Amino acid sequence: MKIWKLVAGILSIIFSVIVFFQSVLVGTANTMSANGEVGGSAGVFVSIFMLAGGIVSIAVRNSQKNGGNIAVVILFLLASFLGIGLAGSFSDLNVWAGWCLINAVLAIISIFKQNKGVQQ
Predict the structure, then answer these.
(1) Which has more pLDDT, 61 or 14?
(2) Between 85 and 114, where is the model more confident?
(3) What keywords appear on the UniProt entry (predicted)?
(4) Quick check: is 42 in a domain?
(5) pLDDT band at residue 118 under the 50/70/90 scheme
(6) Number of domains making up the chain
């Protein structure tokens, strides 16, 4: 799981930059067309949570305690719920929210695997 936390963290940081720029463009288009959608603004928040989750994932990959993993779960779940709930016509945001959901589920699995290893 240590290697996955490193890889997922690096990919999340890279993806957050992509999501940020996409979201800014979509937000600008939403504002100019005055369609009332908030997918661009939600995407900015998704990119911020994804960036924070990636950084924390890298930082806690060697930790024996669960506090950092819990933070990773919370950050990625926030990103995924925002992305899925507020995407609107910004359909790429659903893809990025799915990535965040995968990372959250794997962080939960990591917590349970770590707790199982401590009990033995």
Answers:
(1) 14
(2) 85
(3) Membrane, Transmembrane, Transmembrane helix
(4) yes
(5) low
(6) 1
Nearest alpha-carbon partner for 64 in 120, 14, 114? 114
Token reading at 113: 């695997």
Write out the chain in H/E/C secondary structure. Answer: CHHHHHHHHHHHHHHHHHHHHHHHHHHHHHHHHCCCCCHHHHHHHHHHHHHHHHHHHHHCCCCCCCHHHHHHHHHHHHHHHHHHHHCCCCCHHHHHHHHHHHHHHHHHHHHHHHHHHHHC
Residue 120, in any domain of the structure: no
Taking residue 44's Cβ as centre, other Cβ atoms within 10 Å add up to 17
Q: In terms of residue numbers, what domain contains 37? A: 2-115
Rounded to whole angstroms, the Cα distance separating 40 from 80 reads 15
Euclidean distance between CA atoms 45 and 119, whole angstroms: 38
Instruction: Report yes or no on whether pTM surpasses 0.85.
Output: yes
